[in-house]
Amino acid sequence: MSCLTGQDQSKAKRRSLIGRQFPPFTSREWRVFAISSTAGFFDNYDSALLSLALKQIQHGLGIAERQLGAILSLIRLGYLASLALSPLADLYGRRRLLLYTIVGYTAFTAISAVAPHTGSFVWAQFLARAFSGAEATVSLVILAEEVDAAIRGWALGMQGALSISGYGLAAIVFALIGIIPFGWRGLYALALFPLFLLIPLRRILPESRRFERAHQADVTQPRLQGALRGLLTNYSGRVTSTFVVVFVGSMAGGAVGFFVPKYLQEVHAWSPARVSSLYVFGGALGIVGNIASGRLSDRFGRRLVGPIFIALEALLGYQLYAVRSAVVVILWIGWLFCDQAGYTVTSTYTAELFPTSFRAAATGSLYVARYVGGAVGLICEAALYRVMGSHWSAIRVLTGCWLITAALMYLIFPETAGRELEEIAPASSLR
Questions:
Q1: Is 18 helix (H, G, I), strand (E, B) or coil?
Q2: 217 by DSSP, 3-state: which?
Q3: Which of 67, 95, 102, 201 is most buried, with most CB under 10 Å away?
Q4: Over the Cα atoms of the chain, what is R_g?
């Protein structure tokens, strides 16, 4: 039985409303939802700049074409360092770590604006990714722990949709790259804005109730090493299966999504303003995939909805880099829709499959799998480029990774939709 039985009557009433009206949130849940989504919004702004302004950054820092894949991989490997930060949320609380990570990724993004050469830029971006990965982990965990089980997929999908809108802001300012002082460096300097949010955030952001209960019950292990040992001992199968699924899928995503602006500018002769228009207006349609898959997975199950969208993502991604006509717009929007849909289901799984006392550590390790997989995908793209002589042919080969991911998710993942977190991963088994 769930440890939240005191809320059973309230939850039953709220579940009865699902499907007939807008999913009901309490005022506390709206507050957590808004804050976690806002943090993710600016995080995605930072991540988008490297992709959107890749051509300009490459020119400004004098990065050779043959070095591009390796440099991008090194930056993405910064997410590996987030593995040292994310588990701290299991020891000291979700709220505190979320605030600290906002400071970290904002500061290092701003430092990227004044980096004098390639080496300093890469290291600033590497450290920004470390804090960014931890922020994404804590945002996901705190929302998953606060919302009702019946609408968890929808809530995380909405969070993903609003967070990914940061790409839209980046696309808008990218269209002004020729006007904003210092070009791409000026775009990175704008990342200082989130620091002004810290004062109100400290006042209104609550701590996760599940973390407080686990901490008071002394479920949280006093040492990080003991917590990780307990996680691997009791949930080794889940850790392994989710790591493989996330890693393999990210090998495709790391290359397919990253090279789109460069592909449109070089192959389709698009201007930066036109690329921005696609990201703003087409992206607004594509990110609906977060919301759609979250709602569908709540109703029909994660295990069915996730693989369908991921398989479609593979087919659309392959065609995206094969066409040389205006159809590329439709393909990109469709690919983004499926990409965000699959991302939502996978992220929901990572937050559901592990107990409260280890949830941030487990989710953080799987974010590492996502970004390290993406980095490996870029390394593979660079190797394939040397063999095939074309970035676009190399990327099409990597889309096959998504078909593997879809099959693995369907075959080895359990169904979690509509179940309480304590039922999916009971803390009692770890005592």
A1: strand
A2: coil
A3: 102
A4: 21
Cβ-contact 105, 135 below 8 angstroms? yes
Given a contact cutoff of 8 angstroms between Cβ atoms, the answer to whether 26 and 11 are in contact is no
* Rounded Cα gap, residues 332 and 321, in angstroms: 9
Q: Measured between alpha carbons, how far is residue 287 from residues 8, 69, 154, 156, 374 in Å?
A: 33, 27, 13, 13, 20
Q: What is the 3-state secondary structure (H, E, C) of 35-84?
A: HHHHHHHHHHHHHHHHHHCHHHHHHHHCCCHHHHHHHHHHHHCHHHHHHH
Contact 91, 383 (CB under 8 A): no
Structure tokens at 240: 């392994």
Q: Is 129 helix (H, G, I), strand (E, B) or coil?
A: helix
SS3 content of the chain, % helix, strand, coil (to 5): 80, 0, 20
**Distance between the two ends of the chain, CA-based, in angstroms?**
17
What letter does residue 21 receive in the DSSP assignment?
B
Give domain 26-430's CATH superfamily: MFS general substrate transporter like domains (1.20.1250.20)
Nearest-angstrom CA–CA distance, 5 and 1:
8
- Could you identify the residue written with the tokens 């392994």? 240
Instruction: Give the span between the Cα atoms of 199 and 351, in whole angstroms.
Output: 28
- pLDDT in the model for residue 199: 62
Q: pTM for this one?
A: 0.75
Cβ–Cβ < 8 Å for 242, 361: no
pLDDT by residue (tens digit) across 22-53? 556 777 888 888 877 877 787 778 777 887 78
> How many whole angstroms separate alpha carbon 292 and alpha carbon 372?
27
> What's residue 34's pLDDT?
80
Domain residues of the chain, as ranges?
A: 26-430
CB 133, CB 86: distance < 8 Å:
yes
Report which DSSP code applies to 165.
Answer: T
Place of tokens 């499959």: 353
The Cα 19–Cα 149 span in angstroms is: 14
Residues of the chain with pLDDT under 70: 1-24, 194-202, 215-231, 427-431
Distances (CA, A) of 135 to 147, 216, 237, 326, 380: 19, 24, 26, 37, 28
Contact 66, 195 (CB under 8 A): no
CA 247 to CA 380: how far, in whole Å? 13
| 3-class secondary-structure state, position 204 | helix
21 DSSP β-pair partners? 18
Token pair listed for 269 = 């002769």
Cα–Cα distance measured from residue 343 to residue 365, given in angstroms and rounded to the nearest whole number: 16
